[in-house]
Amino acid sequence: MAMKLPLTGIIPPLATPLLSGDQLDAAGLERLIEHVLAGGVSGLFLLGTTGEGPSLGYKVRREVVERACRQVAGRVPVLVAITDTIFAESIAMARHSTDCGADAVVVAPPYYLPSGQPELSEYIEHLVAALPLPLVLYNMPSLTKVVFEPDTLRRAMDLERIIGLKDSSANMLYFNRVLGLIAQRPDWSLMIGPEELLMESLLLGAHGGVSGGANVFPELYVKLCAEARKPRGNHERLRDLHHQVLRISGNLYGVGQHSSAVIKGIKCALSCLGICDDFMAEPFHRFRDPERERIAAAVERLKGEIGKLLS
Question: Which among 4, 111, 123, 138 is annotated as catalytic?
Answer without folding.
Answer: 138
